[in-house]
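Per-residue structure
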Amino acid sequence: MKLTTNGIDIHYTIEGEGPLVTLSHSLACNLSMWDEQARALKGRYRVLRFDTRGHGQSSAPSGAYTLEQFVEDTRGLLNGRT
């Protein structure tokens, strides 16, 4: 699934029921980094995984990426999906 926030498309998956757990991958990875953990958690939790800006299937605009952009991207995703 994709959600447009902060001027870009963020690719994400959400599965399971219960309290929300959000998993964000490290640099040079994508949301599949969390496949095993999501499989283990989704029976008890609602698991949100996403590709950060410039990774996986999310938009990759040119220029430098900042911590502030990451925070705003994540905030937009949480506000739009939770």
User: Anything to note?
Assistant: The first strand starts at residue 2 and ends at 5. The mean pLDDT is 97. The two ends are 14 Å apart (CA to CA). The domain at 2-81 is CATH 3.40.50.12270 (Rossmann fold).
